[in-house]
Amino acid sequence: MSWDPARDLLTMQEQLDSLFGRATTGWVPAADLCELTDRFILTLEVPGLARQDVQIEFANEQLVVRGERPGADCPQRYHQLERGHGAFSRVFTFGPDVDREAIAADLVDGLLTITLPKPAGANARRIDVR
């Protein structure tokens, strides 16, 4: 098996989480989080999942994405098993700069895209020094 630094980091994160009682089971989908001037865009790789397999909640400035991918059905034994199965949960913390009523999500071709708009007037402003 080739070395995958991202997978190794996620494994270490899971081990640290288990030390502090925050263990997650299953797999951890890869995610990208981008901030633009008017919104955040979060994308997660969730191949094989349908819309009804994913739950998204936003509370206390945290976005929680949960889901579950059923286990593979191998009648004998695996020779190689790299795709994650089971439940997953990812938590992303934001400040008060999210318009919670305007959050939108879309799932296309295994890529879950969540758009979190910033409230009007939340843009940074320049402050002159006197």
Determine the strand fraction and express it as a percent band: 35-45%
Q: Could you report the average pLDDT, rounded to the nearest whole number?
A: 83
Category from helices, strands and their pairing: mainly beta
Tell me the total number of β-strands.
7
Describe the strand arrangement of the main beta sheet, using strand numbers.
1-2-7-6
Element-level helix/strand string: HEEEEEEE
Query: What is the molecular shape?
Result: elongated
Helix and strand layout, with pairings?
Layout: H1 5-19, E1 31-35, E2 39-45, E3 54-59, E4 62-69, E5 86-93, E6 104-108, E7 111-117
Antiparallel strand pairs: 1-2, 2-7, 3-4, 4-5, 6-7
